[in-house]
Design brief:
Blueprint: H1 11-19, H2 23-35, H3 66-76, H4 89-92, H5 139-142, H6 144-148, H7 157-164, H8 168-178, H9 184-195, H10 204-207, H11 212-221, E1 242-243, H12 257-260, E2 269-270, H13 292-301, H14 320-331, H15 336-342
Antiparallel strand pairs: 1-2
Helix pairs in contact: 3-8, 3-9, 11-14, 13-14
Length: 343
């Protein structure tokens, strides 16, 4: 949905107020403007599209509106969607960590443990597919996955809707948002509408205020010497492709092979976005790398051997200072306004 244009306030009104004497006169003018139905107002921008970002492609049946976003945000934070009513989407996707998990794997309902690291939801409205193996084609469909996963919410959509059926606030908001009572259609689309507002693209790297170290790191990142940008390119710093990057010699997670059954997809995972990556530790599909430097050092060493390891993963021979520079550049991709706004 295109961002609504920002309407400027007329300069003549400002000059009028400055020209009036006394607090009573100023108050009368202010009251008159507030009562004037023709007075301009600042429109609410639901999806902040940063410079260089395209508009999101939104399904025709789920245009982003304030009512839908409000309902989705409420449901995103609701523990009623989990079997034991003890966790929510927000329990694993923490706003202070760019809506990523801060543990290797997140706990599920009733103390069960998940099997994968909770990725960031920043810019998820632009993704062409979801889950670490890319097996879910739309954001609306992805919403249903954690609800039914045994290691996450361990529930089902029918029971979740039934549980919320008597919640008058939820039903009122559902009617306002979609013109119908809460059901699976409304629940999945509302949360998706809210998640599409989680846009991050205003880092120092975007506005060009990089330090010399960060500039050197950027040059290395985009160089043929490292080939980082062969996987991490575009406005989200990802091709959305799939790769094994040699993070382990042996894996417990089959990765994309879970969906395709092809041995060439064994232990292959989606290439993540690097936007706001500095605040989303720990890293990798299983959260096995505690720090950003751990990831850089592994790639610099060429990763662990694996039959499906991507050709771009090879010993790089970077010095310690060069690794410092790349880390500095990656940290410059942090959008502080997004973190502040999310909190």
């Amino acid at each position: 949905m295109p961002a609504a244009p920002m309407l400027p306030w007329p300069s003549t009104g400002n000059r009028l107020i400055r020209g009036l004497c006394g607090t009573v006169a100023a108050a009368l003018v202010a009251a008159g403007c507030a009562a004037d139905p023709a007075a301009p107002t600042q429109p609410q921008v639901l999806v902040d599209v940063p410079p260089g970002f395209p508009e999101q492609i939104v399904p025709a049946d789920n245009a982003t509106t304030s009512d839908r976003v409000a309902l989705g945000k409420m449901l995103f934070h609701s523990t009623q969607l989990s079997r034991f009513q003890d966790i929510s989407c927000a329990s694993c996707h923490l706003s202070q960590h760019a809506f990523a998990g801060n543990r290797p794997v997140s706990p599920g309902t009733g103390g069960a443990m998940g099997t994968r690291n909770a990725p960031s939801l920043a810019n998820v409205g632009y993704y062409p597919h979801f889950m670490r193996e890319g097996g879910v084609p739309t954001l609306e469909q992805q919403i249903a996955v954690p609800i039914q996963e045994h290691a996450e919410f361990d529930f089902n959509m029918v029971r979740a809707v039934d549980r919320l059926r008597t919640d008058t606030t939820v039903q009122r908001m559902a009617q306002a948002a979609y013109g119908r009572d809460l059901d699976a259609f409304v629940l999945t689309r509302a949360i998706a509408a809210y998640e599409r507002t989680l846009v991050s693209g205003r880092s120092r790297a975007d506005v060009g205020t990089l330090t010399p170290a960060e500039q050197r790191g950027k040059a290395l990142f985009f160089s043929d010497r490292t080939s980082c940008s062969s996987c991490h390119s575009g406005f989200l710093y990802t091709t959305f492709g799939f790769a094994n990057t040699g993070i382990h010699a042996a894996y417990t997670d089959p990765g994309r092979m879970r969906m395709t059954d092809a041995t060439s997809d064994s232990n292959v995972f989606v290439i993540p976005s690097l936007r706001i990556v500095a605040v989303t530790a720990p890293y990798m599909h299983d959260g096995s790398y505690a720090t950003l430097r751990d990831v850089i050092d592994n790639y610099n060493a060429g990763g662990h051997p694996h039959v499906n390891k991507a050709a771009a993963i090879r010993p790089l021979g970077l010095t310690r200072d060069e690794c410092d520079d790349i880390e500095a550049f990656l940290r410059a991709l942090t959008d502080e306004t997004f973190i502040t706004r999310s909190r």
